[in-house]
C-alpha cells in the first residue's frame, strides 16, 4: 500500500478510537516510567491534533518534573524548528491547524535530550510513517539524543507495508 493510503486509513482508525483516554493513560504511564523520560532534562513534543494521542498531559508532567519543553514550528516547506516553551508561551494555529508557539528562540537540537516523534504508522523494526512533510526525517537524520514514539497497537505493523525510502528515518523506541 502507498504512504498516502496508509495515512488515510490510520487517521480514520484514530478518529474512531474507542476508550481513547483509557489507552492514552496506559501510554503515559509507560512513558513516565521509561529511562528515556527519567534521564531527560529536556523534551521536544508536538501539540497534538484531536485525533492524535493527546500530548497535553505529557507537557504538564514535563513542567511538573522541571524539564525544559520544546515545541516544533514549521517555518518553511523544508524546515521545522523547535521553540523553548514555558507555561506562559502563547500559541497560534498554523495553516495546518496545528498549534505552534509564537516565535521566540529557536533551539539547538542538541539541547533536546528526548525527542518524542509523532507518527501515523510504525513497524516493529522501528520504521515510521508521518504526515508527509518530511520534517521529522530531516531532524532525525542529524539528531543524536533519545527518540521515541507513542502509538496505539492498531498503528503497528509487523513490517512496513509502505515503501521505506532512503530518507525515511527510524525512531529508537516505540511505546505501544
Ligand atoms: N500535532 C502535530 N504537530 C506537528 C506534526 C505532527 O505530526 N503532529 N508534525 C509532523 O511532522 C509537524 C508538522 N507537519 C506538517 C506536515 C505537513 C504540513 C503541510 O503543510 N502539508 C501540506 C502539504 C505538503 C505536501 O504534500 O507536500 C498541506 O497539507 O497543505 C504541515 C505540517 C510539526 N507539528
Ligand atoms: N533528509 C531529507 N532531505 C531532503 N528531503 C527530505 C529528507 N527527508 C525527507 N525528505 C522529503 O520529505 C518528503 C516527505 O517524506 P515522507 O512522506 O517520508 O514524510 P513523513 O516521514 O511521513 O513525514 P514527517 O517526517 O514530516 O512526519 C519526501 O518527499 C522527501 O523528499
Automatic annotation (TrEMBL):
**Required co-factor?**
Mg(2+)
Keyword annotations: ATP-binding, Ligase, Magnesium, Metal-binding, Nucleotide-binding
What the entry lists under Pfam families is as follows: 5-FTHF_cyc-lig
Q: Could you tell me one molecular function GO term of this UniProt entry?
A: 5-formyltetrahydrofolate cyclo-ligase activity
Describe the reaction catalysed, as an equation: (6S)-5-formyl-5,6,7,8-tetrahydrofolate + ATP = (6R)-5,10-methenyltetrahydrofolate + ADP + phosphate
- What general EC class does the enzyme of this chain belong to? ligase
E.C. no = 6.3.3.2
Q: Which SUPFAM superfamilies match?
A: NagB/RpiA/CoA transferase-like
Q: What is this protein called?
A: 5-formyltetrahydrofolate cyclo-ligase
Amino acid at each position: 500500500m502507498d504512504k498516502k493510503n496508509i495515512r488515510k486509513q490510520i487517521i480514520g482508525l484514530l478518529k474512531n478510537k474507542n476508550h481513547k483516554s483509557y489507552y492514552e493513560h496506559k501510554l503515559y504511564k509507560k512513558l513516565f516510567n521509561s529511562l528515556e523520560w527519567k534521564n531527560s532534562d529536556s523534551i521536544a513534543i508536538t501539540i497534538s491534533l484531536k485525533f492524535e494521542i493527546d500530548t497535553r498531559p505529557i507537557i504538564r508532567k514535563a513542567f511538573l518534573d522541571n524539564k525544559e519543553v520544546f515545541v516544533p514550528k514549521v517555518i518553511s516547506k523544508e524546515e521545522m524548528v523547535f521553540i523553548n516553551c514555558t507555561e506562559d508561551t502563547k500559541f497560534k494555529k498554523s495553516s495546518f491547524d496545528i498549534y505552534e508557539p509564537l516565535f521566540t528562540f529557536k533551539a539547538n537540537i542538541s539541547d533536546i535530550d528526548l525527542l518524542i516523534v509523532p507518527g501515523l504508522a510504525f513497524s516493529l523494526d522501528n520504521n515510521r510513517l508521518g504526515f508527509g512533510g518530511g520534517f521529522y526525517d530531516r531532524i532525525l537524520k542529524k539528531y543524536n539524543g533519545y527518540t521515541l514514539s507513542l502509538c496505539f497497537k492498531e498503528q503497528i505493523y509487523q513490517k512496513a507495508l509502505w515503501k521505506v525510502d532512503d530518507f525515511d528515518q527510524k525512531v529508537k523506541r516505540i511505546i505501544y
